[in-house]
Design brief:
The structure is a homodimer of 258-residue chains. Chain A has 258 residues and is mostly helical. Helix content of chain A is 68%, strand content 0%. Chain A folds into three domains: 79 residues, Homeodomain-like (Arc Repressor Mutant, subunit A); 142 residues, Tetracycline Repressor, domain 2, CATH 1.10.357; 29 residues. In chain A, helix 4 runs parallel beside helix 7 and helix 5 crosses helix 9. At the A-B interface, helix 6, helix 8, helix 9 and helix 10 of A face helix 7, helix 9, helix 10 and helix 12 of B. Chain A binds a DNA duplex (30 and 30 nucleotides) through helix 1 and helix 3.
DNA sequence: TTTAACGACTGAGTGATATTCATCATATAT
DNA sequence: ATATATGATGAATATCACTCAGTCGTTAAA
């Protein structure tokens, strides 16, 4: 409710200044940039603590110490501990979405895209598993999650998957089965649950991740790779649908030209 | 490590009680019963608060008030807030496993069993969604989750699913594909993630639950039903007609251009 | 019966932690 | 140079999990 607290909702802006400003803010750029870099420092410090020790075990004084500010200062930038955690989460989602988009763009087929997304998601959440706590326990349940910043960022992130899936259906590589959101839930739900299993196995190797990823994608794709098996009616229809879809693509391409 | 706190493990230990009862029939029994009913009251009160307000927002004094005991008394029965939450979770798992076993026994085919298990799980966790917080955030992460009571109860619960799946493979109703634990993760992960989606939809109907359940089971079963259908001549002709039509579209398109 | 021991329970007290607020410090504007 | 707004501080407050010295009633020993 205070004036400076409103700044807390801002996101990226990378101008990183020297961090030796813990005591006497002598040199530096504009006032605005100084404030921004302090906010960044707080988020970085909070991120470190949260991923290392989890939400409940992380104390505000610990974050303040790491960030080189007083405890009260934290509350100039974020209304409370939850808001600070949400800011950390927002930064995480931004990174996640960016790398996902870049990776997908490099893939050719739908299978490759899905496998990339699955592996990317799984490895990311294994690395920052503690942040998932926040989503599950504090953030998603409290108040109106829908409409919040985190909700929007989550939508943007899963939209990457949605686009790949829709495109796959459009190109005939995936059969047009269930509603989109069900497949999305299966995708992300499986990965987040698998994370727990992998973390508990004594030696969770690269191989395990690959196994999960390929199996999941195989299921979602409808097992298009069953070559040696005899032709079923369903296979036949699927094949024709792909020809159909290809023709439609050409049609639309041609229409767009004229 | 106090004397009365050891009771907190509240599993069966009836033999000792029986002996004591045979020696001193009336007084020992009543005292024991009084203690037991008080423990039950505490667990019930904790369950109410936890499911209503979640772990962090539930206070020990609130539980004590609901249970009709002093705050300190809670610590005679459970070492700390986490242990109390675990006891609540243990009771939940017991109910869940029991009803799952009973329901599966009534089903004939593997598909029916899986669909029952999926619906049962989904409806249960929607009803007691706050308890999942405990599993994800506090219980599973702290200390040695593996080897704990909750871990064992979880194993016993998912074993119901494992048995159904193994049986399905054995009977040839499911193809022998990936490792068992991957399919298990896909099953429970999808359902728990779907729960969140369903809870957020304005009107999450019975229909949505059914859609999730059938789609998930369909994926896991590998569509063994449609795969075995032979191709009929009529199917083939219809398919070729579609390819023909697609070709015609392209022809017309090409003519229109020139 | 008297009395000592015991088991069950209590609630004021303790320490830790999130959050507030009166106060101070610096930079920019006048 | 002075004033004002902006930013920062940390002691004080409130809340909560958890402790412990002590109460009360029952049982067993005297």
């Amino acid at each position: 409710m205070k004036q400076p607290a409103k700044r807390a909702s801002q996101t990226q802006k990378k101008s990183r200044v020297a961090k030796a400003r813990s005591r006497h803010p002598l040199p530096a750029a504009t006032r605005r940039e100084r404030v921004q870099s302090k906010e960044d420092a707080i988020i970085v410090a909070a991120h470190k603590s949260l991923t290392a020790r989890g939400f409940t075990k992380t104390t505000m004084s610990e974050i303040a110490r790491k960030a080189g500010v007083a405890e009260g200062t934290l509350y100039l930038y974020f209304n409370n501990k939850n808001a600070l955690a949400r800011a950390v989460l927002a930064a995480f989602y931004t990174r996640l979405t960016d790398t996902a988009k870049i990776g997908v763009a490099k893939c050719a087929t739908t299978t490759e895209k899905l496998e990339f997304l699955a592996r990317h998601h799984l490895e990311s959440i294994i690395g920052e598993r503690r942040l998932l706590e926040l989503i599950a326990s504090d953030v998603r349940n409290t108040e109106a999650y829908e409409g919040s910043d985190i909700y929007k960022m989550n939508r943007e992130y899963v939209a990457v998957f949605d686009d790949v899936l829709r495109d796959g259906v459009w190109r005939g590589e995936i059969e047009d089965g269930a509603v989109q959101w069900i497949k999305r839930d299966i995708f992300f739900g499986s990965l987040e649950y698998s994370m727990r299993t992998l973390l508990m196995k004594k030696r969770s190797s690269k191989k395990d991740i690959t196994a999960v990823v390929t199996e999941l994608v195989k299921l979602l794709m409808g097992r298009a790779d069953t070559r040696t098996e005899p032709v079923s009616n369903r296979d036949l229809i699927k094949a024709v649908e792909r020809v159909d879809a290809a023709a439609s693509r050409l049609e639309r391409l041609s229409e767009a030209k004229t």
